[in-house]
Specification:
By secondary structure, the chain is mostly helical. 68% of the residues lie in helices and 0% in strands. The radius of gyration is 18 Å and the shape is elongated.
């Protein structure tokens, strides 16, 4: 979520709160759906593992392997969310 959306006023017929995004409503909707919560945690975990492995590669390997890992990270996240 981009914070600037919370400050963009819109007509009431588009959004009843008068702003483009209401964060409290977003968190309430997220917390009421266990599947969505699980997906958010899983995606965060996947990104953490891939970023930590990127740090390990930078420390112990070469730049070409880091580039391949970056491509793999993007492909993995796209594949994960497309399969869901």
């Amino acid at each position: 979520m981009t914070p600037i959306f919370a400050y963009i006023p819109v007509p009431i017929y588009i959004c009843s709160s008068g702003y483009l995004e209401v964060y409290s409503d977003s968190w309430n909707l997220t917390s009421s759906n266990a599947t969505l919560e699980m997906l958010l945690v899983l995606a965060s975990f996947m990104l953490t593992v891939l970023n930590l492995s990127g740090l390990w590669i930078i420390k112990n390997q070469n730049a070409m392997q880091k580039t391949v890992l970056s491509l793999l990270k993007t492909f993995t996240m796209w594949a994960f969310f497309l399969l869901i």
